[in-house]
Amino acid sequence: MADVKIAIIGVGNVGGNLGVLLARSGFPVRFGVRPGADVKALLERCGGQAQAGSVREVSAWADVVFLAVPANAAVAVAREAGDLTGKVGVDCNNPVAFDASGPTVLPVPEGSLTAALAKAAPGARWVKAFNTFGAEFHGDPSLSGMAVDVQLAGDDAAAKDTVAAIAKQAGFQPVDCGPLRNASLLEHLAVLWIHLAVKGGQGRQVAFKLLPRAAS
């Protein structure tokens, strides 16, 4: 699994932390950045295990392309990435707006942002994942002595298996949440997390965890 080449498009808190974690977990990582972007400090955090290049360059090189950009830019960035045919695309983004009551999901005509990406770049094998917790957990997946859950939704079983294996190697616990149509449920789950963290007083050091009942 460590020979899977990973591109991270987006070097904000989510993409940056996740790229550092994946690089330190043994994966070859390249960040897709705009010309002139200063990513020296980010690459130093990767301990020499990552590089940077243009969005198109790193997407062409990679087997798996993680998209961690503002939701309103995601479709345009996916198109900028070029031909993604056969590659696994991982949508880490959420279409969110805020009003006086807190966060809410922005409606997407296709049903979810992941479905919109699948329409814009149909050659890729899209998986919704890594979107239901804060950036702190993208850098450190430990949760009260357990691994934080990564919920996955997508229509390509092999693509989900690949993302699940990456997640597990990096210290997460993958949870298969069904087909691509369920990506919208994960976007709503993300908004619930934001509400609990920001409006509900829970803070950002919480995450959802699927736990079995102990055998009697």
TrEMBL record:
InterPro entries: NAD(P)-bd_dom_sf (IPR036291), P5C_Rdtase_cat_N (IPR028939), STEAP_metalloreductase (IPR051267). GO terms for biological process: copper ion import. Residues 5-95 form the Pyrroline-5-carboxylate reductase catalytic N-terminal domain. Keywords: Oxidoreductase. Gene3D superfamilies: NAD(P)-binding Rossmann-like Domain (3.40.50.720). GO terms for cellular component: plasma membrane. The keyword Oxidoreductase applies. It holds the Pfam family F420_oxidored. It comes from the Bacteria. GO terms for molecular function: cupric reductase (NADH) activity; ferric-chelate reductase (NADPH) activity. This is F420-dependent NADP oxidoreductase. It comes from Corallococcus carmarthensis.
